[in-house]
Design a protein that fits this description.
Layout lengths: L3 H11 L4 E6 L2 E5 L2 H12 L5 E10 L4 E10 L4 E10 L4 E3 L8 H12 L2 E3 L24 H8 L13
Parallel strand pairs: 2-5, 6-7
Antiparallel strand pairs: 1-2, 3-4, 4-5
Family: Belongs to the complex I 30 kDa subunit family.
Pfam family, one: Complex1_30kDa
Organism: Halanaerobium kushneri
Length: about 160
């Protein structure tokens, strides 16, 4: 069973991570160049990190980037590891991880739905929740929630009266 420091040494020996960090006990974060991330995911799966908990996305519009975060867990080491990379917001394309973990297809569909990121190699990016959505993806920070709500819904106060601005 590896500890957090052993895991970071293993990653550093096989890759050139941008940043290695022990967040707290049993929780590690590693940042990669986008060109190395898929290879690092495959490597970790072969080193007991067989559980892909989820994939999340963070929007950094000021920097013109999305940050993709792959959350893995090892039942042998009892360590959570987050592998991060950044991609350009425009065009917002990254390689799929579904060949490594088939469940990645679902998480990638979710990220595509809510952020608009496309995953090369995932031919099933149809909507999960936002059927017939016509706006920019709603989890992007430049999505104007107030404008959307004002355009789509009529406000009423709690006693059922229409609200006027």
């Amino acid at each position: 069973m590896r500890n957090e420091k052993d895991l970071l040494q293993l990653m550093n020996a096989h890759f050139e991570p941008l940043k290695l960090e022990i967040k707290r006990k049993q929780n590690v974060s590693v940042e990669f160049k986008k060109e190395e991330l898929i290879q690092a995911l495959s490597f970790l799966k072969s080193h007991s990190y067989r559980h892909l908990s989820t994939i999340s996305c963070v929007d950094w519009p000021e920097e013109g980037e999305f940050e993709l975060v792959y959350h893995l867990f090892s039942y042998d080491d009892l360590i959570n590891i987050s592998l991060k990379t950044r991609i350009k917001r425009d065009p917002g394309i990254f390689q799929t991880a579904k060949e490594i973990w088939p469940v990645a297809e679902f998480y990638e569909r979710d990220i595509h739905d809510f952020f608009g990121v496309k995953f090369k190699g995932n031919d099933n990016l149809e909507e999960l929740i936002l059927e017939n959505w016509q706006e920019i993806p709603p989890m992007r920070k430049d999505f104007d929630t107030r404008k959307f709500v004002n355009d789509k819904y009529e406000w009423r106060d709690y006693n059922g009266q229409k609200h006027t601005d």
